[in-house]
Amino acid sequence: MYIFQVKSNTMPPEITTTDRPTPEGKQVAVRIHACALNFSDQLIAIGRYQDMPTFPATLGMEFAGEIESVSDTSPFELGDRVAGFTGSGGLAEYGVFDPRYLVAIPDAMPFNHASAFIVAYGTSHIALAHKARLMRGETLVVTGAGGGAGLTAVEIGVQMGAKVIAVVRGADKVAAVKAAGAHHVLDPDVDDLREVIKSLGGADVVYDAVGGDMFNDLFRATNPDGRILLIGFAGGNVPTIKANHMLVKNITVIGVNIGYYMKERPEIMRASLAELFKWYEDGALRPHIGATFPLAEAGAAFQALKDRTYAGKIVVEMPVS
Q1: How far apart are alpha carbons 310 and 56 in whole angstroms?
Q2: Helix or strand holding residue 290 (H, E)
Q3: For the ranges 57-61, 250-254, 299-303, 307-311, which has the lowest average pLDDT?
Q4: Please, what's the b/e burial string for 82-118 (b: 16 or more CB within 10 A of its CB; e: otherwise)?
Q5: With 0-12 CB in 10 A as exposed, 13-18 as middle and 19+ as buried, what is 129?
């Protein structure tokens, strides 16, 4: 079978072949149909992710497919449609996984949507609902709002009744965040973020997936008792946080590592996904898939992710066999 594998942090990932894996113990086998890419896949490829798999590693944190074999104690049956949040192994035609990290998907959800759902929507929902406890009527600022996670934060913020300010660059990404329901859209290259956000009433919750220099403006635009969610540092620089300023303004800075919930607290992840799937079935959420590539072109998909070419998620689809 074909897989997209990284052999070391000094070698680029590549398509290679390997034997089809055999389940052991309680593992189940999954015929994978689609796998979405995440920024974390880039970090794994260069050896800088906080929860690194062992090299050589098959990339792909999240995927969707069908159960092909089960153990006697499996909660799934043959043919069940599932999505996985396993951290790696999704960019392959087949995989074997611990069923604790798989979840049944709605019948109406196609595999490409399911593959692009778990990490981005799970991150944003746990961040906004579980960690920040975003309340109806509050103002939410989302940075990197045109990315895979950022767009879901916009959608979920709107669904939870917040006023959403999206910070984004590029006409296509502006269109995407507007379609997702953002009430205001700011360009960090043009707008004075601190002044404009303050003129709109200030931020009650900040969902920051970028970090870097922008963080200081966001911090200063955050209202007393505000919450700042650290989702990632796509801007490349980790900001310095002044604890005395946090104290004076009663600001809470919250780290959100979705990998922790995937591996250590899957029950919280499952509860979050149950609500998210309901919203999907109600038509309130729809994954924005910016581009789709076949597995044979996974390298090009990976480069597009690195270059931030597309708004929303990039999905790799497996060959039909």
Answers
A1: 28
A2: strand 289-294
A3: 307-311
A4: bbbbbbbbbbbbbbbbebbbbbbbeeebebbbbbbbb
A5: middle
Q: 169: burial class by Cβ within 10 Å (0-12, 13-18, 19+)? A: middle
171, exposed or middle or buried, with CB in 10 Å at 0-12, 13-18, 19+? exposed
Residue with tokens 């050589």: 56
287 CB-side CA count, 13 A: 26
pTM (predicted TM-score): 0.86
For residue range 121-153, list pLDDT tens digits in order.
999 999 999 999 999 999 999 999 988 889 999
Residue 74 DSSP class = -
Instruction: State the alpha helices, DSSP H only, in the chain.
Output: 39-45, 111-115, 118-125, 148-159, 171-179, 193-199, 214-220, 243-249, 258-263, 266-281, 298-307
